[in-house]
Amino acid sequence: MSDVEEAVTRAHQDEWARVVASLTRRFGDLDIAEEAAAEAFATAVERWPADGVPPNPGAWLTTTAVRKAIDRIRRENKRDDKHKEAQMVYDNTPPEPLGVIDDDRLRLIFTCCHPALAMEARVALTLRMLGGLTVPEIARAFLVRETALEQRITRAKAKIKAARIPYRVPAAEDLPARVSGVLAVLYLVFNEGYLATGPDTDPVRHGLTAEAIRLTRLIRALLPEDGEVAGLLALMLLTEARRTARVSASGELVTLDEQDRGAWDKALIAEGHRLVRERLAAAAAGMAPGRYQILAAINAVHTSARDIRDTDWSQIVALYDQLVQLDSSPIVALNRAIAVAELDGPEVALAAVDRLADELAGYHAYHATRADLLRRLGHSQRSRAAYDKAIELAGNTAQTANLTRRRDQLR
C-alpha cells in the first residue's frame, strides 16, 4: 500500500464520522450527508495521488463534501425549496442551552438511535453513519444477509426523514430511556474495531475502538450515575488494554492464553479496574449490575491474572451464571462453556457447546471452540474438520492464520 493509500485509509477511519455528522447538522438529511461524504472520499482517492495529501485531511474532506452536497441539492427537481430548507437548518438553528455537550457525532448517535426506530435499525444505521462500516461488514456483525441489512438502513433513514426526528442530544429527562440503545451501538462499533469482521481490512482498527471509547466517555459525562455506562466504559478499556498483544508481527491473531501480558496497557487496566470496583460497591449497596457491568467484571478477572494459569475460572463461571440471567443468547452460552472447560474439563464444555449447534452453525467461533475442545480430548480428525469449518467462516486474515496454525499442529 502506498503512502497516499494509507493516508486515505487513515482519513476514512479518523474523519468519516466527523464529515457525516457535520453535513447532517448543516443539511439535515442523512442521505445527502452519507452520499456527499462518500463522494468526497472518492475524490480524495482520485486527486491526492496527484495533488498530494492535504495538511488537514479532515477539513479538505468536509469542504469537498459540502460542495458535493450543494451540487446534489441544486440538481434536485425541487432544488429551490430543498436548498432553502438546507440553509435554514444550517443558518437558523437556535443555539442549544449552555451545558449541553456540543459534539456533532454525539448528536448524530442520538438521532440514529432514536426510539422510533427498531433496535436492529438503530445499530445498523449508526455503524454505517458513525463508524463508516460497509454494508458487508455490518451484515457480518449481525449475522444477516447483506440485502436485508441494506433495506434495514434505507428504511431507517426514510423513517428519520418522514418523522422529522431531531438532530440533537436529548433533554436530560429523556436521556436514561435513550441511552441503552446508544450503548448497544457503541459496543458493536468497538467490537468491529477491536477485531474486524471483514476480510479486506486491518484486523484491528484502532480508529473505531478509540471513537467508541471517546463517545462512551462523553455519555458518561452526561450520565455519571448510570451504572451501565460506567460498565461499558470499563469493558472497553479492559479490552482495549490488550489490543497491541492481540495480533502478532506476522499478522496472526494471538488468543488470550498466548498473549504477552507484559504488553498490556497498564494505565487502561488500572482505569478499568477502578470503574469495576465502583460498580461492585454499588452492587453491594443493592444496585443490581447490568450486562455491561458483568462483562467488565469478567474482563477484570482476566486482566488481574499475571499468567493464564492464575486465572480465577470459578469466579468467571459464576459471573457468566449471573450474565445468563440477563442475556440468554447462544453467544453468551458459548463463552460460558469456554470458561467451564477450564474449570470442569473439555468434555463437560463440549456437551454444552454441542447443544448450540443449531443456533451458531454459521458462527466461526462456535466451530473454533469445538475444534479446540476436541483437540484437548484427543479427537484429532473431528478437531481438524471443525477447524476447517471455522477457517471457512473466519472474518479476517488474522483469525484465519491462527486457526490454520492450530489445525496444522494436529497430528
Task: Provide a descriptive summary of the structure in words.
With 411 residues, the chain is an all-alpha fold. It has a domain at 322-411: Alpha Horseshoe (Serine Threonine Protein Phosphatase 5, Tetratricopeptide repeat). 71% of the residues lie in helices and 0% in strands. It is built from 20 helices and no strands. The chain has helices at residues 3-27, 30-51, 57-75, 79-91, 104-112, 119-129, 135-142, 146-163, 175-194, 206-222, 227-240, 266-284, 291-304, 313-326, 330-344, 346-354, 357-360, 364-376, 380-393, 397-408.
CATH class group of the domain at 322-411: Mainly Alpha
CATH H-level superfamily of the domain at 322-411: Tetratricopeptide repeat domain
* Average pLDDT rating: 88
Estimate what percentage of residues fall within beta strands: under 5%
Shape: globular
Report, as a whole number of angstroms, the end-to-end distance. 38 Å
Number of strands: 0
What structural class should be given to the helix and strand makeup?
Answer: mainly alpha
> CATH architecture of the domain at 322-411, please?
Alpha Horseshoe
CATH fold name of the domain at 322-411, please? Serine Threonine Protein Phosphatase 5, Tetratricopeptide repeat
Number of separate helices: 20
Whole-number radius of gyration?
A: 23 Å
Task: Please specify the SSE layout and strand pairing.
Blueprint lengths: L2 H25 L2 H22 L5 H19 L3 H13 L12 H9 L6 H11 L5 H8 L3 H18 L11 H20 L11 H17 L4 H14 L25 H19 L6 H14 L8 H14 L3 H15 L1 H9 L2 H4 L3 H13 L3 H14 L3 H12 L3
Helix pairs in contact: 1-2, 1-3, 1-5, 2-3, 3-4, 6-8, 6-9, 7-8, 9-10, 9-11, 10-11, 11-12, 11-13, 12-13, 13-14, 14-15, 15-16, 16-18, 18-19, 19-20
